[in-house]
Amino acid sequence: MVFQLTDEQAAVVELVREFVTREVLPVASRLDRNERPEDCFSWELVEKASAAGLRTLTLDEEYGGSGVDFVTTALAVEELAKGDMGLAVVFAQTWKLAQTLQLAGTAEQRARYLPAYAADPRGLLAITFTEPDTASDYFVPHDGARYATTAVEAEGGWRLNGLKHFISNGNRASLYIVFAQTDVAQSLEHGSTAFLVPRDTPGLSIGRVHDKLGERLANNAEVIFEDVFVPDADVLGEPGQGFRVQQTFFPASNAYAAATVLGVAEAAYDRALAWARQRVQGGKPIIQHDSLASDLAELRMWLDATRLYVLHAAWAGDHPEAWDPMLGALPKVLASEVGWRVLTRAMEVHGGYGYMKETGMEKLLRDAAAFLHSDGVNRTLLLKAAKHLR
User: Fold this and answer.
1) Which CATH architecture best describes the domain 7-123?
2) pTM for this predicted structure
3) How far is it, in rounded angstroms, from Cα 386 to Cα 356?
4) Under a CB-based contact definition with an 8 Å cutoff, are residues 131 and 164 in contact?
């Protein structure tokens, strides 16, 4: 395989890089420091991204987007995360859900929802899997795994009741893909259904916004459904086949999550390298000390290897004939472990300064910790991959 960016991919990377430099870096640290999690989110950044054409990056051209593939999207996510992880999560969620809706939605659903999403400069998307007692179960389903959120057939549609939590863009999305149990006699693998639910649907409300350690520019929140009526026209896929819709989502989800934490690690590495070149100890810049230079070389090796793995997973998502199910689990595990390694070592390169907030390393460390847990706890994802070995 030849790993060289196309002209389109290079243009997208440059567009995101310019947006990060101009709009994200000047405000990210200030937003991150806000006490209330709701105040860390910025509609202004979303609107500016819309104006730059970034929000609709993955939307097909017929709906007003750029129609980029999985690889280009992964590159964009990584570049955006160099500016701020939380903002990268806001858009990675929206980008992959636009792709999911285009893959799994009917022509009528696409025509009804996608133009409206494209036209709204604040249009964001969210997907609701996780519940207080149902989390790892949908990654590694078993016979007893069921969503507590249920949907019961009613005249012309379904009645939806339940609570989801930890939902990225949960309090900001204009449209949700909601997974609910529609056959309580079956596991969620065989008895769940996916629904399209607009934000203004009666009975849908927002609970608490979770107060996170890092990744703070993205809001995660509870989404509550109280007797929400969903018409049959808004069933995504077939009733009882929610897990099939889920499978269209996970390839991109894992690759984009990996690209997100990779971008944070890249930002930390770049700061450590710049610091090592200008910080003088022992009579010379510390990069001239062999032990430290070899540490930086090792980090570069891990980052480059991880990027190739992430891009391979994204490429396989674009080429289903080459898909390996393990690529829907392992890239994020590798990227998050490498990211944590890079962050802790990059802090050490800074010496005592690395522990001071003024260098920015503290924020990057908090952000990198997120994906040891987010998008599937690493141990759960390893178990998911292990199922394919068996």
Assistant:
1) Orthogonal Bundle (1.10)
2) 0.96
3) 41
4) yes
